[in-house]
Amino acid sequence: MSEAGEAAPTRADCVADSAGGLTFHITDWVRPQPGSYDDWNGALVLILRGAEGRDGGEVRLPLGPTGDGRLQAALPSTVALPEGRWDVHMAYGDAEPRRLVPGLNDLRSLVDRRPGPSTSPLSVRIPYATKHGNLSLRSWRRAPHAEAGEILLEDGAMAVRGRLHRVQHPAEWLAGAVLEARCRRDTARVRTVPVTADGADFFCTLPFAELTEDWGGGADLWDLRLRPADAEEPPARLARILDDVPDKKEIFTYPSMELTAPHGQARVRPYYTRDNDLAIRVEAPV
Q1: Are 226 and 195 in contact (CB under 8 A)?
Q2: What would the pLDDT profile of 53-97 be if each residue is shown by its tens digit?
Q3: What contacts 230, CB < 8 A, 6 or more positions away?
Q4: CA distance 224 to 68
Q5: What superkingdom heads the lineage (predicted)?
């Protein structure tokens, strides 16, 4: 028991696999009643933040004992987990689900992950500790997906290399494709540049002058996606999710560039959003 008289927090270790699945191991939980596991009815409960009580806002995973005395639950990549942040709980019997705290994470299989060919949605789940010290998951589920790789800033432009995932014929999908930048404040403002492809790998260069030519001051945020030549095919959001970093906004940072625009000096900087999507911010210099 803790000094406050409450039970100590229960920790869950997480192990990721290269397919996008997670296995949870609980080692420090004390069963409320003694006895065998014949009447066991525990579960790992994932609750989508902001969707409590709504259909699809809760996923329950069987939580059972293993031979070494631990409790284990599996979240396979085949279980559809909608995009968002999922808080991780443990439930036993009729008791209210209780938040878990992070233990040890083995996320080596997520580093430089290269998913195999498939047309099913790409599943990405990354466990992390919240600011309150609880265990949560960041989940993505995308098809198609354009994974951003190397980003170079020079000569007033941004050059991006990446790889397309979850389309049946990536070379055909990329033939004639463009990088589309769409202004979040005024979605009618759209800029496109051609994409060069080699199989599923792509390369494109976006001159920042394209985004500042009609900038009128204030802050413009531009979302980036690959749009295929075939209008019936869905676009692919440009993002970086195939690694073990759940929140890249404050970790993967890029320098800004200043350009002379018709309205005045503009500062342009690429950045990752809270969803790890690649975007560009245009604003006045400080």
Answers
A1: yes
A2: 677 789 999 998 887 778 999 999 999 999 999 999 999 877 788
A3: 173
A4: 48
A5: Bacteria
Give the separation between CA 226 and CA 210, rounded to whole angstroms.
Answer: 17
The predicted pLDDT at position 32 comes to 53
**Which residue is it, tokens 């309205």?**
263
Q: Do residues 24 and 14 make contact, with C-beta atoms less than 8 angstroms apart?
A: yes
Rounded Cα distance, 122 and 145, in Å: 7
Of the ranges 21-30, 136-145, 165-174, which one carries the lowest mean pLDDT score?
21-30
Q: How far is CA 120 from the centre of its chain?
A: 17
Task: Say how far residue 1 (Cα) sits from the centre of its chain.
Answer: 36
Which residue from 126, 164, 159 is spatially nearest to 270, judged by alpha carbons? 159
Q: What percent of the chain has pLDDT over 70?
A: 93
197 residue type, one letter: A
Q: Is residue 217 predicted with pLDDT exceeding 80?
A: yes
- How many whole angstroms from its chain centre is CA 185? 23
CA distance 251 to 245: 9
Positive/negative CA dihedral, 22, 23, 29, 33: positive
**Which ranges in the chain belong to alpha helices (H)?**
170-174, 209-212
CA angle (80 as vertex; 78, 81 as ends), nearest 5? 125
CB-based contacts of 197, cutoff 8 Å, min separation 6: 170, 171, 174, 175, 177, 203
Domains of the chain and any CATH numbers: 11-142 (2.60.40), 145-283 (2.60.40)
Q: Given phi > 0 = left and psi -120 to 50 = alpha, else beta, which region is 136?
A: beta
Q: Burial, 208: exposed, middle or buried (Cβ in 10 Å; 0-12, 13-18, 19+)?
A: buried
- Contact (Cβ atoms closer than 8 angstroms) between residue 64 and residue 72: yes
Of residues 209, 19, 210, the one with CA closest to residue 113: 19
